[in-house]
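To illustrate the input format used throughout this study, we show a single complete record. The first block contains the structure-token representation of the backbone; no residue identities are included at this stage. The design step must infer an amino acid for every position from geometry alone.
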């Protein structure tokens, strides 16, 4: 039985008598403290159509009451579960019983509407499945809601409503949840009915959005990546043979004395000079002064330091001051954590575009009481592959092959020969090696020929795996490309340091 006062109250909210009767709404006096107030009463039924709870709402003021020790369940669950085609039915979940009535008035079927039995919380829960207040959701799933393919969440347009939506998604599963955001001037479905009238259902359906699934995207949802900054090392004869890229991690292998440190410095000197970018460097085995400085001076001018004028040296030193920043640990035993923190600092203060870590084995390894060196290296490389993207820099790690011996040095080192772990081959975006087949020619003169191998390029923009021949020009102290079959001019002997041995 519904009183005239309740019918009039509901009609002011856009709900007619027929909708109330469909929901088996009744009216009566409900006790609120020491007062009895005329109320609209929404009964909660189980699947046997027995009343297991009710919610009363006074029509004179906004106050509510439920049955003491009543069962907590979705409102209208009995009608939804009576639907024999749940697998193909979209279920709409509101935040109040009057919202269910509004949805009914808006053109939705009785067997696809639910409301939560209690109000929303101030903020989303870390694990709503552990909260007693959400037991009704798990019970509903056990009783048959687990068959539903799609839930549309129509919680209130306020912070508690959004928190409730988040909790419901966690319980029902992101993959089958969609949602609708009410405009700023509309709080809930009942407000929307009053605002839109006959256009209610159209307005809702037009803007229903699938709830995002963490880590899952379609092609439209994936933003176009920024264009990768590519660096050409500007070595004559190697134009477009390969590039180094920002946001990438490279591995550079070489046996001691093979020239990997020297050539790494030459590459980044050329890049810093051509692209006017800043380079960070940790040199754990080669002193910055005088050796690294000497090398950069030579690579900057393509001229031996001993033949440079004071003005040329000063010009090169100005370049070093402007473009290079060096990392030096007090005890020359930096930890991985200390190093990556300094890389972040270098990026923040000096806006470095690249960092050279030479060599990896100078990092202080942790105590492997638990885990192993392989696991540690894997974790470190995982972190670095993320760090290079976040900072948009290139990190080049120079690595010694494990236990180099005379037999091993008869062939170029491979990623699997890197000391410590096979993770190097899997994690790096780019893998290089430099190898000197011999150190002395047949006539006893110094052999300066080397083989530069590119064994991995993750992206085609970087080039492709290949082998390139190069040699150290003793007249300039710089590496140059050359063709093996072409005669090489005999170079003068300069009794001066002009190479950096690893």
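Output of the design step:
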């Amino acid at each position: 039985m519904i009183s005239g006062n309740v019918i009039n109250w509901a009609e002011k909210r856009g709900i007619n008598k027929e909708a109330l009767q469909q929901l088996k709404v009744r009216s009566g006096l409900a006790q609120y403290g020491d007062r009895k107030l005329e109320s609209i009463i929404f009964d909660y039924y189980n699947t046997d159509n027995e009343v297991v709870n009710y919610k009363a709402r006074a029509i004179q003021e906004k106050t509510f009451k439920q049955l003491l020790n009543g069962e907590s369940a979705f409102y209208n669950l009995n009608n939804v579960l009576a639907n024999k085609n749940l697998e193909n039915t979209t279920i709409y979940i509101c935040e109040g019983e009057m919202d269910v009535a509004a949805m009914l008035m808006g053109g939705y079927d009785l067997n696809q509407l639910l409301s939560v039995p209690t109000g929303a919380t101030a903020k989303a829960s870390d694990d709503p499945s552990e909260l007693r207040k959400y037991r009704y959701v798990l019970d509903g799933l056990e009783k048959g809601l687990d068959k539903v393919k799609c839930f549309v969440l129509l919680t209130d347009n306020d912070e508690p409503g959004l928190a409730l939506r988040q909790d419901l998604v966690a319980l029902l599963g992101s993959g089958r949840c969609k949602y609708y955001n009410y405009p700023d001037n509309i709080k809930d479905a009942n407000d929307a009915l009053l605002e839109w009238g006959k256009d209610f259902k159209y307005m809702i359906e037009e803007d229903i959005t699938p709830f995002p699934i963490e880590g899952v995207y379609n092609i439209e949802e994936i933003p176009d990546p920024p264009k990768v900054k590519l660096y050409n090392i500007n070595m004559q004869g190697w134009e477009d043979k390969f590039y180094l890229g920002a946001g990438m991690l490279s591995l550079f292998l070489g046996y001691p004395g093979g020239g990997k440190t020297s050539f790494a410095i030459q590459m980044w000197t050329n890049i810093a000079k051509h692209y006017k970018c800043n380079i960070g460097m940790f040199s754990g085995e080669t002193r910055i002064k005088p050796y690294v400085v000497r090398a950069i001076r030579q690579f900057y001018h393509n001229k031996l330091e001993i033949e440079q004028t004071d003005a040329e040296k000063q010009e090169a030193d100005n370049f070093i001051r402007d473009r290079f920043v060096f990392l030096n640990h007090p005890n020359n035993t930096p930890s991985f954590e200390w190093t990556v923190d300094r890389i972040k600092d270098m990026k923040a203060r000096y806006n470095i575009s690249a960092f050279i870590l030479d060599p990896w084995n100078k990092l202080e390894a942790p105590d492997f009481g638990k885990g192993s060196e392989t696991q540690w290296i894997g974790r470190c490389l995982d972190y670095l592959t993320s760090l290079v993207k976040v900072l948009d820099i290139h990190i080049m790690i120079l690595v010694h092959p494990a236990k180099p011996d005379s037999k091993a040095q008869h062939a170029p080192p491979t990623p699997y020969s890197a000391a410590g772990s096979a993770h190097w081959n899997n994690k790096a975006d780019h893998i290089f090696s430099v190898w000197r087949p011999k150190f002395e020619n047949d006539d006893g003169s110094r052999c300066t020929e080397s083989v530069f191998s590119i064994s991995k390029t993750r992206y085609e923009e970087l080039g492709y795996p290949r082998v390139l021949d190069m040699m150290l020009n003793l007249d300039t102290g710089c590496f140059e490309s050359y063709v093996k079959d072409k005669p090489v001019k005999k170079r003068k002997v300069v009794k001066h340091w002009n190479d950096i041995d690893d």
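Structural context for interpreting the output: The first strand starts at residue 26 and ends at 32. The radius of gyration is 36 Å.
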